[in-house]
Write a structure and sequence with these properties.
Radius of gyration: 15 Å
Oligomer: single chain
Helix content: 25-40%
Number of strands: 7
Largest sheet: 7 strands, parallel
Distance between the termini: 12 Å
Strand order of the largest sheet: 3-2-1-6-4-7-5
Structural class: alpha/beta
Number of helices: 5
Amino acid sequence: MRSIVVIAHDMRSTHNVGSLLRTCEGIGVAKVYFSGYTPYPLHEDDDRLPHLARKIDSQIAKTALGAEKLVPWSHNTSEIDALLRGLKVDGYQVVALEQSNVSIKLPDYKPPQKVAILLGREVEGIDSRLLTLCDKTVEIPMYGHKESYNVVQAAAMALYHCRFMTS
């Protein structure tokens, strides 16, 4: 089975984080990495102020519905660059889910056996500097009037494609 990991970098919404964890649990994602200022669930050695950590955890749990306890995850305290390099060393193809002038349409993307999907900020997307660190950039074609999907909806489509697309 294909190994899929997700990097949620600089996402703001606790509800998006919870929904992402629930989606990742359902599709069998091996691990979720939270980086930058992305909120993350409460954990044993949490160094955040206890009342803030509990509040954030409660907000995440509202949409995760227990998935925050089932999906392996970590909060990456090192630089995102090091995380992406480490995943590449481990054999993952790092794929940004973003609209750009070099992006591949999702239906045309053929995922390898190990894929890491980078998700970015809800409004601004992934910083252009980070896009240069990725192996590929994939976008979901839009046919309506809006220019983008919610980050978790887009992640769900990409994850489903990666899980069930045969090479």
